[in-house]
Amino acid sequence: MSILTPRGFLFSVTEAGIKYSGRNDMALICSEGDATVSALFTRNRVKAAPVILDRARLRYARTARAIVVNSGNANACTGRRGLRDAERICAEVAKGLCIRQRDVLVSSTGVIGTPMPMERVISGIRGLVENLGKSSIEDVASAIMTTDTFPKAASREINRGNIKGRIAAVAKGAGMIAPDMATMLCFIITDLAVEYRALKAALKDAVGRTFNLLTVDGEMSTNDSVFIMANGAAGNRPITHGGRYFNTFGETLFDLCDELSRMIARDGEGATRLLIIKVKRALTRRDARVAALKVANSPLVKTAIYGNDANWGRIMASVGSTGIRFSEEKVSIKINGIEVARRGCSTGRDSIASEAMKTEEVVVEIDLGAGRYEERVYSCDLTEGYITINAEYRT
Amino acid sequence: MSILTPRGFLFSVTEAGIKYSGRNDMALICSEGDATVSALFTRNRVKAAPVILDRARLRYARTARAIVVNSGNANACTGRRGLRDAERICAEVAKGLCIRQRDVLVSSTGVIGTPMPMERVISGIRGLVENLGKSSIEDVASAIMTTDTFPKAASREINRGNIKGRIAAVAKGAGMIAPDMATMLCFIITDLAVEYRALKAALKDAVGRTFNLLTVDGEMSTNDSVFIMANGAAGNRPITHGGRYFNTFGETLFDLCDELSRMIARDGEGATRLLIIKVKRALTRRDARVAALKVANSPLVKTAIYGNDANWGRIMASVGSTGIRFSEEKVSIKINGIEVARRGCSTGRDSIASEAMKTEEVVVEIDLGAGRYEERVYSCDLTEGYITINAEYRT
């Protein structure tokens, strides 16, 4: 599947050798003209230096030209030195591209607590600047990977009335995935002209329904960031908040983010399959969300899925432990369409469900019979692979 | 280490073949006379039938004679049939022992969602009644095991002034351990005379400081129960709430529960070591507790401990994700006494700490520098063993 690249953006990648060797670990995304920009960041109280810097910039700025990204080092828990390093990275990129420093955003992912190897990073930036335009957006997707096993990129085209443009995005995921307001790292670009308020609202809505309902391990990162840049190279009349094409843009953006969040769940550290938890007929929207996230994070449910065990008792216990309001005797549970529990008791179909679970996607539907709200969360199974990756991550 | 058995209690165990074979899976604890009783149960909304039954009984009753326990089947998510089965178990024990049905409590642990194999259970009860007095409290500890790798029993002697008596307890743990008001199953017996209000208060206090600050996998069970029976066989003047020996009794009970909760953490499913998380100088007591539990449940911290990786960045991220109030630049972290982070940044001593971590107990101290409250939680590392046990539990 090839990616439709929005016009007016240039890319480059390079091997700076920050942590990994034999692969690219820095990337630059650059808009040829000023792009309207919006971003959402982690709600973790411990924020990485790039997040602190970008947040401060985006409090006032509504446009940007470039985003520089590295993998292998998160530049988190690095104190003042980390902030100085993040500023210097932006300054070097700005100098190389002859643009203003405040038009450069920076994003990092990787090990926490280790200062950035700035010599390598600076020489990496030189390479990025020299080679700008020689890489594709797919190359960017590969360069930002950490423990991901495949690069994550997707795109959409909008062709409706006077609007003809493209939206593309790259993301990285794998571990420490339980975002609140964002996922690990995601960069979205579009050549459509979109007014700031519309861009911000559409991003917030799409992220709330996709990346924020995604969990691999219940761990919120220090670096979670989602950026969107809209440079208007498509030449359309700007999309406005609540205006004619706002919904089209918003739904397309949602659809794109949805595809990426499924990819991230499917590629969770050590995961062998995508797990889709649907909670139905909850008493409140919050109840539905809390229950779906709890089940999606349950190590006992996730290991049972891995073992093809339709162990619905663990699902019941997990929902029960949240404290949300429901009656056990009204709950029914389906796994890949097979009803394993009805009115809180076994239907005797566990073994049929266990067979039906041997698929790449496992859908667990929990009908609480308590109200009318529903929610859906993406997750993955929990395997020995997760342990191995994370016991040996820094060695 | 041999267990000091309180006087006036009789025990028996039997192999009923409920799920396991070649081992005992039912146990009976019986006091020769009426014993004052108190208990704490899971706060899971989905409660097993024995929990529902015992809770209802103990709402009015303050004494009991016997507790019958089985492993292999939790009798949870079994609907009305489960309740009828639990009642029948009590009735059969009462008939066999010629005592009143309401003086019998029942407790189960094992698979959720499968009806009890009542024929085997009933014939098991016959064996228990016939053999009463022929087993030791250690035998009970073995019979209630599920995925535990060793039986858990402990005892204390109180010999102070006019008070001379014993407290002993058995517990089972291993998986689905994140109790709130109780742990999986724990049975405490003492030959001291203790008034009901004193017994209840001492139990609640001890459990709050031990089993409720214990987590293996963040999963709250449907069957968590802690029982205490005090039969007065020691002949002391009853210990009263706030009376002369109340503190001695309470602290001894706490100490006993503390020993058992360490055992449960150390024997968490797949665990290779005990993990002790201490949070210091938090702004509030709740903050200290929330932070300690979050770190103790973090799969990234737990896998790092397993891999002897002093990855304090994950600890910072985990604390940050709780939303409690603290400043990153005031945090220091010690692992087994080695300071790995000071003022939020690396001390460069990760490799020294990684060496110092190769012990059976790993102590993580997080000084938040925010206030004056502290809390301590027991947990364990997360290994491939947890995955294997739980992916294959029902097969």
List the helices and strands and how they pair.
Two copies of one chain form a homodimer.
Chain A: E1 9-14, E2 26-41, H1 49-58, E3 63-70, H2 79-97, E4 104-108, H3 118-130, H4 137-143, E5 152-160, E6 163-172, E7 185-190, H5 196-209, E8 225-230, H6 246-266, E9 274-282, H7 285-297, H8 299-306, H9 312-320, E10 332-335, E11 338-342, E12 345-346, H10 350-356, E13 361-367, E14 373-380, H11 384-391
Parallel strand pairs in A: 3-4, 7-8, 9-13
Antiparallel strand pairs in A: 1-2, 2-3, 2-8, 5-6, 6-7, 9-14, 10-11, 10-13, 11-12
Helical run tally of chain A = 11
Largest sheet properties of chain A: 8 strands, mixed
**What oligomeric state do these chains adopt?**
homodimer
CATH topology of the largest domain in chain A: L-amino peptidase D-ALA esterase/amidase
**Any low-confidence stretches of chain A, pLDDT <50, length ≥5?**
none
Which protein chains make the most extensive interface, counting residues with beta carbons within 8 Å of the other chain's beta carbons? A-B, 67 and 67 residues
Query: In sequence order, what are the helices and strands of chain A, one letter per element?
Result: EEHEHEHHEEEHEHEHHHEEEHEEH
CATH architecture of the largest domain in chain A: 4-Layer Sandwich
Topology, number of strands of chain A: 14
The helical percent of chain A reads 25-40%
